[in-house]
Specification:
The complex is a heterodimer of chains A (368) and B (583). In chain A, 24% of the residues lie in helices and 37% in strands. Chain A has 368 residues and is α+β, with helices and mostly antiparallel strands. Chain B has 2 domains: 284 residues, MetI-like (MetI-like fold); 222 residues, Orthogonal Bundle (MetI-like fold). Helix content of chain B is 73%, strand content 1%. Chain B contains 28 helices and 2 strands. In chain B, α10 runs antiparallel to α11 and α24 runs antiparallel to α27. Chain B is globular, with a radius of gyration of 26 Å. The chains are: A alpha+beta (368), B mainly alpha (583). Chains A and B meet through β6, β7, α3 and α5 of A and α1, α2, α23 and α24 of B.
C-alpha cells in the first residue's frame, strides 16, 4: 500500500485508533492527490468518521501517521500531534454547527478573525464566499433563523472562507430531506470544483458517494474493502461485501472451476443438485478451484421466454412489477430468487417459465 | 516505510515531543482544576474521618486514638435523644413537604385551578428564603404568650388559651415542611407538565374515575420525581441547623446539628466528638443521596411527546376553588404571614405580642443597618458586608470552577473525568454543617482560619455542584460540534471557550450564579461553625441578635436579608427558567 500513497497530497499510513478495547480503525492507508474529492463510504461503525476525526485532529490516534503536503499532522510513534486549530482544515459537520449566537456573516468571518486578517479584507472575502454559496441576502440573519439547507450553505462557507488546505465533510447532507439532499449534492460538488480544495467526504449513502466523488473508499469494520472510482466500484466490486453494499446484486456461493486468460474463468453454481456453469470475470486474487461468490447486477440478468444456446438457467417468475422504464422481476431458481430487471416490452407475468441469460462481461466472481 | 526516514520531523526526540504534546492549554487548566476540586472536597472529609477517632481526655489536654467518640454518642445523656429528634423531624418534615409539594404541583400542572400561572412563582419563594428566618417569623407568630396568631385568636374569640405552640419539634417539622415543600414541587412539576395526556385519557376510557386515574396512573408515573424530592427533603432537614436552633433546642429538643454546633463552638467544645457526630450524620445523608442519584433519578420516566403540545388539564368543577384556596393558604403560611409578622415586629422598639400603633418606629433598621451602636450589634453590620462579599465573590469563583468542571465532564474523555464527575456529587451528600466541621478541623491551625477565605472555601466546596448542574444541563443540549468547528476554524482551546462555549452557556452561567448568590447570602449552617469575630455573615448576625438582643432587632435584620433575597429571586425569575433549580 505504501507505494500507492507516496507522493500523494494527503497521506494516511497505517492509521490505528482504539476506543477502549475496540479497534475502530484497523491500520488503514490511503493517499489523495491535490484537489481530488474522496469519499469514505460505509455503514455506521465502519470507522469512516473516526478516520475523518483523526485527520481533523479531533481525536488522537493510536498508531500510524497522517501527513498533508510537508506537514506531519500526527504520528504517535514520533510523539507528534498537531492540534486541530493548527492544521488549517475546513470542516462541515453533520449538525452544521452554525453558532447560534452569531449572524451568518459573523459565523463566516470567524476563521478569518482568528487568522488576524484585516477587517476590510475579511468583509470582502465573506461577501465573496456568501455569494458563492448563495447566502448574500441572509448575511445579517441570526443563524437560528436559517432553514436546514441554508445552514448547510453557511457551514460550507465558513469551512472554505479561509482557503484551507483540506476540506472535510462529516455526513453533511444526512439531516436534510430527500429533495434538498439531491439538490445539495450537486451544489456541494460544484462549489468544491470551483474552489478546488482537496476534500474528504464521509457518508453512508452510496448514491451520494457515486454522484459526488472522484474516488470512493468502501470501509467495513475499520478496514478498507475497496478503493476506486464510482464506475469501478459499481461495476467491478472485489468482494461480496462491496457488491452488497453498493447497489443491488444477485449473490450466490459457488466455485471457480478454471481460469482461462488472466481475469476470466468459468464459474460453477450448484443448486438443488443441479449444476450450472458460466463464464465470468474474476476479481484479483481468485484462483482455480477456490470458493467464490457470483455477483450479478439485476440489470445484467436477461430473462427470455425461449430457450437458446446462450441461456443457462430455467426458472419461474414469482412476481413482476411494471415501473414504467423497466420491470422489476423475481425469478425462482431452486432455493434462490434472482432479482432481474427486464425491459418493459417483455411483458413478463408471475407464474411464467423463463430462461436466464448472463453477459460474461458483467458476471463477476468475487471474494466471499 | 521510506517516507518516514525522509521526514524532517524524525530528528526530534520522541519523549520530548510527547511531553510537549501533553502540555496543552486544555490539559494544564483541567489538571489544575481537578487537583483543586479533589483537595477541596476530599481533604476536609478525610481529616474529619481521621479526627473522629481522636479521643479527648477528660481534662481536655491530650488525645488518644480509639472509638471513644463513637461509644460516647450512644452513652451520652443528650446525643442519643438528639439522634432520635433529628429522625423524627426529618421524617415529619419529609411527609409534610412531600404532601404539600406533590399536591401543589398536581394542582398547578394537571388541573384547571384558577390563576395557576400566577401562583407558581409564589409557591417557589420559600425555596429561596432562609428557613432560619422562617423559624424566627413563626416563633413570633406561634409563641404561646407573645405569638401574633395566638393573640389575634384571643382577641377575636375571647379565649384565654393559646391556639398553637410552635416552640417544639412539631414546630420544627411545620417550618421545615413548608419551607422545603418547593423542593418536592420542583422535582414533580416538570414531569407532570410534560406528561403525555393520552396516558391519563386511556385510563379514563377504561372506566377509571378521576381519583383512581390520578392514583394508579398519574402519581406512579411521577413516583421517581416524588422519591427524589422526598429524599432531598429528608437529607436537607437532617442537616438543617437554624430551625431547630430557634424553635426546639432552647426548649429541650436538641438535634444532631445543634449538638454538633455546641461541640464546635459551645462551652463544652470537643471538636473530635463533633467530628464523630458529623461522620454519623454525613454517612446517613451521603448514603441516601447515593441511592437517589444512582437508583431513583435515572428511573424518571420520559413521557415527553412531540413538540409544542399543551397537555389537557383535568376539570375539577367547583372543586377548583377548593384547590385555589388550598394553594392560597400555602402561600399565606409560607410567605405572606412570616413576612408580615417580621415587618410588624421589626417596627416596634420592644415586642410584647401586640401591635402598638403609637410605638411604630424605624429605629431597629437604623440600628442594624447603619452602625447606630457598633459595639453591641457589630455582628449585624459586619454580616451584611461580609455576606455580600461572600455572595459576589463566592458565586463568581464557584461558577468559573463549575464551568471548567462541566467542560471536562462533558467535552473531554481523558483520565480523571469520572473521578471529577463523582467529586461533584459528593458535596451534595454532606450537610453544610458536616463539611464545615471537616473544614474546621482541617484548617484550624492554618492562617486562613478566622478569615473570610475559609468561609468562601467551604461555601464553594459545598455548593459548586449546584452551579455545575446548571451549566451541564445546557452543555448537554448544545452539540459538541459547535466547539469542534471553532477548533477547525483555527481557534485555540481557550479562544473557543471564550468566544463560543461561554457565550452559548450564558443562560446557565447566569442562572447558576444567581442561585449560588442566593444560597450564599442566606447560608447559616457552614457560617455558624466557621465564623469568628469580624467574619460574621448575615445569618450569623441574625443568630447573634436573636441570641443576645431582642426580637425587634432580629426581625429588622431578617427583613433586610429577606428583601435582598427577594430582589435576587426576581432577577432569577427574569433571567432563568424553572429547570435551573432541580438539576
Amino acid at each position: 500500500m505504501s507505494n500507492e500513497t507516496t507522493g500523494a497530497y494527503l497521506q494516511v499510513d497505517n492509521l490505528v485508533k482504539y476506543f477502549g478495547n475496540d479497534k475502530a480503525v484497523d491500520g488503514i492507508s490511503f493517499g489523495i492527490p491535490e484537489g481530488a474529492f474522496l469519499t469514505l463510504l460505509g455503514p455506521s461503525g465502519c470507522g469512516k468518521t473516526t478516520t475523518l476525526m483523526s485527520i481533523a485532529g479531533l481525536h488522537t490516534i493510536d498508531g500510524g501517521r497522517i501527513k498533508v503536503g510537508d506537514t506531519v499532522f500526527t504520528s504517535p510513534k514520533e510523539g507528534l500531534f498537531l492540534p486541530p486549530e493548527k492544521r488549517d482544515i475546513g470542516m462541515v459537520f453533520q449538525s452544521y454547527a452554525i453558532w447560534p449566537h452569531m449572524t451568518v456573516a459573523e459565523n463566516v468571518a470567524y476563521p478569518l478573525e482568528i487568522r488576524k486578517i484585516e477587517q476590510p479584507e475579511i468583509d470582502d472575502r465573506v461577501a465573496d464566499v456568501l455569494k458563492l454559496v448563495g447566502l448574500t441576502a441572509e448575511a445579517d440573519k441570526l443563524a437560528t433563523n436559517l432553514s436546514g439547507g441554508q445552514q448547510q450553505r453557511a457551514s460550507l462557507a465558513r469551512a472554505i472562507v479561509s482557503k484551507p488546505r483540506l476540506l472535510l465533510f462529516d455526513e453533511p447532507l444526512s439531516n436534510l430531506d430527500l429533495k434538498l439532499r439531491e439538490q445539495m449534492r450537486v451544489e456541494l460538488k460544484r462549489i468544491q470544483n470551483e474552489v478546488g480544495i482537496t476534500s474528504i467526504y464521509v457518508t453512508h449513502d452510496q448514491s451520494e458517494a457515486l454522484v459526488m466523488s472522484d474516488e470512493i473508499i468502501v470501509m467495513s469494520k475499520g478496514k478498507i474493502e475497496q478503493r476506486g472510482g464510482p464506475v469501478e466500484i459499481y461495476s467491478r466490486p472485489v468482494n461480496e461485501y462491496v457488491s452488497n453494499f453498493i447497489g443491488v446484486a444477485n449473490l450466490l456461493k459457488g466455485k471457480v472451476l478454471e481460469v482461462n486468460e488472466p481475469g476470466q474463468g468459468l464459474f460453477e453454481l450448484a443448486q438443488d443438485g443441479k449444476q450450472v456453469q458460466m463464464p465470468c470475470q474474476l476479481s484479483p486474487g481468485i484462483a482455480a478451484g477456490e470458493d467464490a461468490v457470483l455477483s450479478v447486477r439485476p440489470e445484467n440478468v436477461h430473462a427470455v421466454r425461449e430457450k437458446d444456446g446462450d441461456t443457462t438457467l430455467e426458472g419461474e417468475v414469482t412476481f413482476a412489477i411494471f415501473l414504467g422504464s423497466h420491470v422489476d422481476c423475481r425469478v425462482q431458481w431452486g432455493d434462490f430468487e434472482w432479482k432481474v430487471i427486464a425491459h418493459p416490452r417483455t411483458r413478463l407475468k408471475a407464474g411464467e417459465k423463463v430462461y436466464l441469460k448472463f453477459d460474461p462481461e458483467h458476471t463477476l466472481a468475487v471474494q466471499p | 516505510m521510506t517516507t518516514e526516514a525522509l521526514s524532517p520531523t524524525r530528528e526530534r526526540s520522541p519523549l520530548n515531543n510527547r511531553l510537549r504534546a501533553m502540555l496543552t492549554q486544555e490539559n494544564i487548566i483541567t489538571l489544575v482544576v481537578a487537583i483543586i476540586v479533589a483537595g477541596a472536597v476530599v481533604v476536609p472529609l478525610a481529616v474529619l474521618f481521621v479526627s473522629s477517632f481522636k479521643v479527648l481526655d477528660p481534662l481536655g489536654w491530650d488525645t488518644t486514638w480509639g472509638f471513644g467518640n463513637y461509644v460516647e454518642m450512644f452513652t451520652d445523656r443528650i446525643i442519643p435523644k438528639a439522634f432520635l429528634n433529628t429522625l423524627i423531624i426529618s421524617s415529619g418534615s419529609t411527609i409534610l413537604a412531600t404532601f404539600l409539594g406533590v399536591s401543589l404541583a398536581w394542582i398547578n400542572a394537571r388541573t384547571n385551578c384558577p390563576g395557576r400561572d400566577y401562583l407558581e412563582p409564589y409557591n417557589l419563594i420559600p425555596f429561596f428564603l432562609s428557613p432560619f428566618i422562617g423559624a424566627i417569623a413563626w416563633h413570633n407568630l406561634g409563641e404561646p404568650q407573645t405569638g401574633l396568631l395566638n393573640n389575634w385568636v384571643r382577641d377575636i374569640f375571647g379565649v384565654d388559651w393559646a391556639l398553637i405552640n410552635i416552640d417544639n419539634i412539631y414546630g420544627v417539622i411545620w417550618v421545615t415542611g413548608i419551607f422545603f415543600a418547593p423542593l418536592v414541587y420542583l422535582f414533580v412539576v416538570g414531569s407532570l407538565r410534560r406528561m403525555d395526556p393520552s396516558l391519563e385519557d386511556s385510563a379514563r376510557t377504561t372506566g377509571a374515575g378521576l381519583i383512581r386515574t390520578t392514583m394508579t396512573i398519574t402519581l406512579p408515573l411521577v413516583m421517581p420525581g416524588i422519591l427524589s424530592g422526598a429524599i432531598i427533603v429528608f437529607v436537607t432537614s437532617a442537616g438543617e441547623f437554624g430551625v431547630p436552633f430557634k424553635l426546639s433546642a432552647p426548649y429541650g429538643w436538641e438535634t444532631l446539628t445543634t449538638q454538633i454546633f455546641s461541640k464546635a463552638v459551645g462551652d463544652d467544645a470537643n471538636h473530635f466528638l463533633g467530628a464523630a457526630m458529623s461522620m454519623a450524620l454525613g454517612i446517613i445523608t451521603v448514603l441516601l443521596i447515593w441511592i437517589q442519584q444512582r437508583y431513583i433519578a435515572p428511573r424518571s420516566f420520559t413521557t415527553v411527546t412531540g413538540k409544542g403540545f399543551r397537555p389537557n388539564v383535568l376539570d375539577l368543577g367547583p372543586w377548583r376553588w377548593v384547590a385555589f384556596g388550598y394553594n392560597l393558604m400555602f402561600i399565606a403560611v409560607a410567605v405572606v404571614l412570616p413576612i408580615v409578622c417580621l415587618i410588624i415586629v421589626s417596627l416596634h422598639p420592644v415586642w410584647t405580642g401586640k401591635i402598638v400603633w403609637a410605638d411604630i418606629t424605624t429605629i431597629n433598621y437604623v440600628k442594624t443597618l447603619f452602625w447606630w451602636r457598633p459595639d453591641a450589634i457589630a455582628a449585624a453590620t459586619n454580616g451584611i458586608v461580609n455576606s455580600l462579599i461572600l455572595a459576589f465573590g463566592g458565586a463568581s469563583i464557584a461558577m468559573v470552577m463549575a464551568l471548567v468542571i462541566s467542560y471536562m465532564i462533558h467535552r473531554t474523555k481523558g483520565f480523571g473525568v469520572r473521578m471529577l464527575d463523582f467529586l461533584s456529587v459528593v458535596p451534595i451528600g454532606f450537610p453544610g454543617i458536616v463539611l464545615a466541621m471537616g473544614v474546621l478541623v482541617t484548617y484550624i491551625q492554618t492562617p486562613i482560619y478566622a478569615t473570610l477565605w475559609i468561609l468562601m472555601l467551604a461555601y464553594i466546596t459545598r455548593f459548586f455542584p449546584y452551579g455545575q448542574r446548571n451549566i451541564s444541563s445546557i452543555m448537554l443540549a448544545i452539540s459538541e460540534e459547535l466547539d469542534q468547528s471553532s477548533r477547525m476554524a483555527g481557534a485555540s482551546w481557550f479562544t473557543t471557550l471564550w468566544r463560543i462555549t461561554i457565550p452559548l452557556l450564558k443562560p446557565g452561567l447566569f442562572a447558576g450564579w444567581i442561585l449560588l448568590f442566593i444560597i450564599f447570602l442566606r447560608e447559616l449552617s457552614i457560617s455558624i461553625i466557621l465564623f469568628t469575630t469580624g467574619t460574621e455573615t448575615l445569618s450569623v448576625g441574625v443568630y447573634y441578635l436573636t441570641n443576645f438582643e431582642n426580637e425587634p432587632l432580629t426581625a429588622a435584620l431578617s427583613m433586610a436579608q429577606t428583601v435582598l433575597l427577594l430582589i435576587a429571586i426576581y432577577a432569577f425569575r427574569r433571567f432563568a427558567g424553572r429547570e435551573a433549580l432541580t438539576a
